[in-house]
Write a structure and sequence with these properties.
The structure is a single chain. This protein has one domain. The protein is 52% helix and 0% strand. The protein is built from four helices and no strands. It is globular. The mean pLDDT is 86.
């Protein structure tokens, strides 16, 4: 448990803040929309606004354990190569 404490307390504070503003639904483990679709539908805008050549959208299940640990609903993980 000690190795997670560094991330746990800020996460608890974040969830507590969201619950106070959004209600109990802030504790949902899923989001009410398809995150992949939102990213894919907005690829052109993202590529242009960030000045990238390309963006590849992948599910966290295809990533290594560290990335899967850092991903959360509504909090995508970015890697720049």
């Amino acid at each position: 448990m000690k190795r997670y404490m560094k991330k746990l307390m800020p996460f608890v504070a974040y969830v507590k803040e969201r619950v106070s503003t959004e209600g109990v639904s802030a504790m949902d483990l899923t989001v009410p929309f398809d995150e992949t679709s939102v990213l894919v539908d907005n690829l052109g805008y993202l590529i242009k606004s960030i000045a990238l050549v390309d963006i590849e959208v992948k599910p966290s299940t295809e990533a290594d354990a560290k990335i899967q640990e850092d991903c959360a609903p509504g909090k995508p993980y970015s890697i720049f190569d």
